[in-house]
Amino acid sequence: MRTIAFRYFLLVCCFLCLFFARSGAQNNPDSLLPVRGFCIEAPRPSGVDSFVTFINNELAPRKVNTLVLRIDFNYQFKSHPELRDTIALSLQDVKKMVAACSNNHIKIIPQINLLGHQSWANKTYNLLKQYPEFDETPWVKMPEKYAWPNADGLYCKSYCSRHPRVHKIVFALVDEICDAFETDAFHAGMDEVFYIGESGCRRCRKKDKAVLFADEVRRVRDHLALSKRTLWIWGDRMLDATTTGLGIWEASQNHTQAAIDLVPKDIVVCDWHYDRADKTPVYFAMKGFKVVTCPWRNPDVAVQQLNDMVNFRNTATQQLKPLFYGMMQTIWSHNADFLKEFYNKTPDASGQNKTQWACFTKLYDGIQNLGERVK
């Protein structure tokens, strides 16, 4: 009898250990939501210490584990110093942020916009300013006063992905910034590419725009793979604007959407929708991509997107579940401006809280309560 009782006791203990281990795994934030991200412009040198404080006091306690920092030309590049902003981060500035993130188990992913976003409004950015021969649309002149819509269809300039010298330069920047941030991932942007395969470009005309886009994604991905780094991009150019009704910003109206079937499956897609909780993560996951949902300034939409992501993970097949990768709050004001509005709890123009800081706060309140909500 003692032997039988002892065996029964061991069986119960094993069952309880297995139950609590499984329960703990289910409530582990990394298991429930592998990516808990925050995307923001990198600070200027004068704002580094304030941003480090924000990392320590705001991101870390909320269990943010991924920080996408938009760098572009805000770094004192040694490989191409001609591309630096006039005031730019030093290596010492970068290391302060690296140390803060390392201490708080936050993965840093630097971003430099590749392909598109080489200008904004009436300002040409550094790459095309220094190397105008890379311009996909040199015949489109920057206006003194920008307005949309306009006769040229100018939103942002692009570089020509088939120029023979462009990648030697941009890949040098990519390698240098990844080394500085000690990272195994890089965000290439690649959103809202309106100029691609233009008829006036002798290298690109008559080329399939989806192929051109996919080829550029593959070039960047293959280059990063040489250093065992992963490519992250925004997902809008791989969605069909007309079929989905998403429009020209959140999806493609210039025929790049077929690239979704041409690009490598090991890239991470950041799927941004700011006014509705569109169910496009399912589409990306069904195509084989890890997908991260990205809200901006509508707290209610962000909460719905979080609920959707949790539901997708809970109801997906074993193969699809890991592809529903998580959530990432996006910030589109200057770094210092966001910190000011966050700490001052500044309302929007109508006096409401449809703001970046309120969206961030409500999203991460929901993430912090995630374990309770999915039991």
Describe the structure.
The chain has helices at residues 2-27, 29-32, 48-59, 91-103, 126-130, 166-180, 209-225, 241-244, 247-250, 280-286, 299-315, 335-344, 356-368, 370-373, and strands at 35-41, 66-70, 107-114, 119-120, 123-124, 185-189, 230-234, 268-272, 290-294, 324-330. By secondary structure, the protein is α/β, with parallel strands linked by helices. The strands form 2 sheets. An 8-stranded parallel β-barrel has the order 1-2-3-6-7-8-9-10, surrounded by 6 helices. It has a two-stranded antiparallel sheet with strand order 4-5. Strand 6 (185-189), helix 7 (209-225) and strand 7 form a beta-alpha-beta unit. Residues 88-333 form the Glycoside hydrolase family 20 catalytic domain. Its EC number is 3.2.1.52. Belongs to the glycosyl hydrolase 20 family. It comes from Niabella soli DSM 19437.
SSE diagram, text form:
Elements: H1 2-27, H2 29-32, E1 35-41, H3 48-59, E2 66-70, H4 91-103, E3 107-114, E4 119-120, E5 123-124, H5 126-130, H6 166-180, E6 185-189, H7 209-225, E7 230-234, H8 241-244, H9 247-250, E8 268-272, H10 280-286, E9 290-294, H11 299-315, E10 324-330, H12 335-344, H13 356-368, H14 370-373
Parallel strand pairs: 1-2, 1-10, 2-3, 3-6, 6-7, 7-8, 8-9, 9-10
Antiparallel strand pairs: 4-5
Helix pairs in contact: 3-4, 11-13
Q: How much helical structure, as a percent, in the residues?
A: 40-55%
| Individual helix count | 14
How much of the sequence lies in strands comes to 5-15%
CATH level-four homologous superfamily name = Glycosidases
Which class of secondary structure composition applies to the elements? alpha/beta
Number of domain units:
1
Query: What's the N-to-C terminus distance?
Result: 38 Å
Under CATH at level 1, the class stands as Alpha Beta
CATH architecture descriptor text: Alpha-Beta Barrel
Shape: globular
Q: If you compute it from the alpha carbons, what radius of gyration comes out, rounded to the nearest whole angstrom?
A: 23 Å
Assembly category: single chain
The poorly predicted ranges are 9-25
Strand order, sheet with most strands: 1-2-3-6-7-8-9-10
EC number: 3.2.1.52
GO molecular function, one term: beta-N-acetylhexosaminidase activity
Pfam families: Glyco_hydro_20
Active site: 192 (proton donor)
